[in-house]
Design goal:
Length: 256
């Protein structure tokens, strides 16, 4: 039931592990396609509870599945999710965020003398430098002593802080637009799932997986033609252009 609750929610509301998988589910299917099968009629639970072979031989649910699957879909039982019975351990903690600037400012929401308020600084360069050192301090507090960064600020640290400042300025000035964009993202995913052209463009090309070579090929030194082997495969249907496009069965003979 927890999984159904997650699927019917928005992926960005959950922690990364669940959010990534919910995002894939939303891309490949619609949340309404997922339903709950009661434990009493779930074949997978029979073995986990302990059943003998003789019991499974005469078990109708094991061989035929839930009885309601033989009815039309409109007659299937409804899936009612009781929110109070769902654990929300996978929800993001609203007080914690990977954005250090937002984390720092949330601590001083009611502080009129907020030290990192951009208005307090005479230049952007000074604002970026001070915030970069604060961000480094936060990172170093989370790292082991031998992994902490010291010395002058790097270009990467400067760039990260500049990007954070720009993002948070946009969130404050264009808060309505930002919230609207975040809400529309889920709607776009639903549209992409229903759009055949979108699914076709995002489809991944299948790749042939090559089988690993036997270990003996790497361990035993062999001279050329010291050992030979023969393989035979087919038939493969081929078209003979010289014979008016006649289709013939072709076999492959491989001698190594």
């Amino acid at each position: 039931m927890n999984v159904l609750y997650w699927i019917r929610g928005r992926s960005r509301e959950y922690k990364p592990f669940v959010a990534n998988r919910i995002g894939e589910i939303h891309t490949s299917s619609h949340p309404q396609q997922w339903r709950h099968v009661p434990t009493k009629v779930k074949p997978a639970d029979l073995v986990s509870r302990g059943r003998t072979i003789k019991q499974l031989q005469s078990d109708v649910i094991w061989w035929n599945g839930p009885e309601f699957l033989q009815d039309e879909e409109p007659q299937w039982p409804d899936t009612n999710i009781q929110i109070e019975n769902v654990r929300d351990t996978e929800l993001k903690c609203q007080k914690k965020t990977s954005d250090k600037y937002t984390t720092l400012k949330s601590i001083h929401n009611n502080d009129l003398d907020w030290r990192l308020d951009p208005v307090r600084y005479s230049s952007v360069v000074r604002l970026v430098r001070v915030q970069a050192y604060v961000h480094r301090f936060i990172d170093n507090c989370r790292l082991k002593q031998n992994q902490r960064r010291q010395g002058s600020l790097s270009t990467v640290e400067y760039a990260d802080v500049e990007l954070d400042i720009i993002k948070n300025a946009q969130k404050e000035v264009f808060s309505d637009d930002y919230n609207a964009l975040m809400k529309r993202r889920e709607e776009i995913r639903e549209y992409e799932h229903e759009c055949y052209t979108c699914r076709k463009k995002k489809a991944k090309v299948a790749e042939q997986v090559m089988a690993p070579l036997p270990e003996i090929r790497f361990k035993t030194p062999l001279h050329a033609f010291a050992r030979t082997a023969v393989d035979f495969s087919g038939p493969f249907i081929t078209v003979q252009a010289e014979e008016n496009d006649v289709r013939k069965d072709t076999y492959v003979y491989l001698h190594v």
